[in-house]
Amino acid sequence: MKRATLALLILSLPLLASAQKPTTIDGVTFYDQPGTLYLPARQVGKALGWRLGVGKDKKTPYLNQKPVKSRTRSLPNGTLLIQLAELKHRGLALQPSEHGKLTLVRIKTREFYAREGAKRVVVNKSHMQIRAWQGQQVVMASPVTLGMEGKDTPTGLFKAQGYRSKMHKSALYHNAPMPWAVNIVGNVFVHGAANVKGGRGSHGCIRVPVTGGNPARFFYYWVDKGTPVSILGKWPKGAKTG
C-alpha cells in the first residue's frame, strides 16, 4: 500500500510543476519611447533558459547565442534592458492577458508574463535617498542632496509635472545650471549634480548624481508626467528598498 502511494506521488510531480503559474517580469518604459516595453535581459534569459553574453566586440549583447538587434537601454546599476519586440522578432508568441497590462510570452514549453506596471517615486529624507519603482521592479536607487536649513525640501505627496529640460537654468539663483531637470512642485526639481553623496545643501531641489550610471539622466527619460513622487521622512509601509 505504501509503495503504491509513493508511486502515485512521484507520477503526480510533473503535473504539479506544469500547473505552476508562469513567472512575471516587470518591464520598464521611457518617456521618449511611448508604447515600447523593455525587459531585464538576464531575467528573460532565466525564464526562457537562454544564455546572456557579449559579442567579440565586447559591446553587442547576445541572447541565446544571437545578437540583440533592436535598441537596448540600461538601468543606472548597469542592468541591460531589451525590448519585448525583440522576442517577437525571434519567433516567440506574444499574446495579451486578461489580467491587466500583462503579455504572455511563450516558446515551446517555456513562458512568462511581461508586465507594464505603474511607476512611483519615493524620496526618503531620513536616509537621503531616492528610489523609483515600476511595478515591483526597483529601477533606480540613489543618494540625494536635499534642501539646506531654511530652504528645506517640502514633505508631501506630489506628482511629476509636465515641464522638463535637459539643461534648466535657475531663475532664482543666478542661472545656476540644473541638468536633467524635472519639475515636481513649485520651484522644486529633481535634477542632476556633481558630488552628490547624501546630505543637505540645495535650495530645496532634489539633486541626483550625474556620475555612476547617471541616475539623473535615467530619471529624466524614465519618469512620466503624473508619476507619483512621495517626499517622506521614511520609506512607506510595504515599499521594497532593494
Tell me the layout of helices and strands.
Blueprint (H helix, E strand, L loop, with lengths): L1 H17 L5 E3 L11 E3 H8 L3 E3 L6 E3 L2 E2 L5 E2 L5 E4 H6 L3 E4 L5 E6 L2 E6 L3 E6 L4 E6 L2 E7 L1 E3 L8 E4 L4 E6 L7 E9 L2 E6 L5 E4 L3 E4 L5 H8 L5 E5 L10
Parallel strand pairs: 1-10, 11-21, 14-19, 18-20
Antiparallel strand pairs: 2-7, 3-4, 4-5, 6-7, 8-9, 9-10, 11-12, 12-13, 15-21, 16-17, 17-18
Structure explained in plain terms:
The protein folds into 2 domains: 22-115, no CATH class; 119-232, L,D-transpeptidase catalytic domain-like (Beta Barrel). It is an alpha+beta fold and 242 residues long. The radius of gyration is 22 Å and the shape is elongated. It has 4 helices and 21 strands. It has a 5-stranded mixed sheet with strand order 13-12-11-21-15, covered by helices on one side. Strands 1-10-9-8 form a 4-stranded mixed sheet.
- Give the overall pLDDT as a whole number: 88
The CATH superfamily of the largest domain appears as L,D-transpeptidase catalytic domain-like
Radius of gyration: 22 Å
Shape: elongated
- Domains counted in the coordinates: how many? 2
CATH structural architecture of the largest domain: Beta Barrel
The neighbouring-strand order within the major sheet is 13-12-11-21-15
Beta-strand proportion: 35-45%
CATH topology of the largest domain: L,D-transpeptidase catalytic domain-like
Q: What is the CATH C level class of the largest domain, in words? A: Mainly Beta
Helix content: 10-25%
Number of helical runs? 4
Query: What is the distance, rounded to the nearest whole angstrom, between the alpha carbons of the first and last residues?
Result: 50 Å
Task: Name the poorly predicted regions.
Answer: 1-18
Biggest β-sheet: count, sense, barrel?
Answer: 5 strands, mixed
Helix-strand pattern, N to C?
HEEHEEEEEHEEEEEEEEEEEEEHE
Query: Class by helix and strand content?
Result: alpha+beta
Number of strands: 21
